[in-house]
Amino acid sequence: MHDVNPEYIRAVFTDAPQHRTLSLPHYQRSAVLVPLIWRGDQFAFLFTKRTDSVETHKGQVSFPGGVVDASDTDDMQTALREAQEEIGLPPSSVEVVGVLDDLATPTGFVIRPVVGIIGKVPPLTTNTDEVSEVFEVPLAFFADQTSGRTEAREVRGIHYEMWFYEHGNHLIWGATATIVRMLLKKLQLVQ
C-alpha cells in the first residue's frame, strides 16, 4: 500500500488530471465534494447522512453535494457551495486537488466528484432539513479488501455491480460507495 499523504494525493491528480465527462439527456447535472480530512498520519472521509425529509436518497449516507445551479460557474463551485450549505464547511478550508470521472446514477443524476483535502476541520453547522448526521470513516477501512462486499443489481434494465460497506451503524453503498472505489483505484489502493 502506498504511503497516502497529502503530497501523494496531489501528485496523483497532477500526474493524471484527465477525467471522463458525461452529458446524458434527461439526467440532472450535480457535483459532490469528496472531503478527505488529514489527521496528521492518515486520511478519513467526511460523510453526511441525509434526513428522511429530503426529496431524494432519504436516509442514505452521501457526500455533501447537489444539483448544479445556474449561478454556479463550474462543478467545483457547486460542490463547495453545497458543502457550505449542508454542513457549514467554508470553501476556504478545502484544498481542491482534482476531480474523478463523472458517474451516472440509476436515479437520473450525472455526478462530478470533486476531491478536496481538509487540513483542519472547522466547527461544522449542519442544515438539519437536509443532514441528520456528519461522521468520518478512515480511508484505510475502505482500502482493506475485507471491508466491502458487492452485489449484482439491475435498475431500469441496466446491470450494476453495487458496493456495500458497513462501518459502525452506517451502511455506505450506491453512488457514494462507487465514488469511494473510484478514488481508491485512482490512488492505486485497490484493483
Q: How would you describe the overall organization of this protein?
A:
- It is a single chain.
- A hairpin with a 4-residue loop joins strand 1 and strand 2 (43-50).
- It is built from four helices and eleven strands, in the order αββββαββββαβββα.
- It is an alpha+beta fold and 191 residues long.
- It is globular.
- The mean pLDDT is 90.
Uncertain spans, ≥5 residues at pLDDT below 50? none
* Class based on secondary structure composition and strand pairing: alpha+beta
Radius of gyration: 16 Å
Overall morphology: globular
Total strands: the figure is 11
Approximate helicity band: 10-25%
How would you sum up the major sheet?
8 strands, mixed
Number of helices: 4
- The sequence of SSEs as H and E is HEEEEHEEEEHEEEH
Strand content: 35-45%
Q: Tell me the span between the first and last alpha carbons.
A: 12 Å
Mean pLDDT, all residues: 90
What is this entry, summarized?
The chain has 191 residues and is an alpha+beta fold. It contains four helices and eleven strands, in the order H-E-E-E-E-H-E-E-E-E-H-E-E-E-H. Strand 1 (28-38) and strand 2 form a beta hairpin.
Which key phrases capture this entry?
eight-stranded mixed beta sheet; three-stranded antiparallel beta sheet; 37% strand; alpha+beta; 191 residues
Itemize the secondary structure elements and their pairings.
Elements: H1 6-15, E1 28-38, E2 43-50, E3 61-62, E4 65-67, H2 75-87, E5 95-99, E6 103-104, E7 109-118, E8 131-138, H3 139-143, E9 148-155, E10 158-167, E11 170-173, H4 174-186
Parallel strand pairs: 1-7
Antiparallel strand pairs: 1-2, 1-4, 2-3, 2-8, 5-7, 6-7, 9-10, 10-11
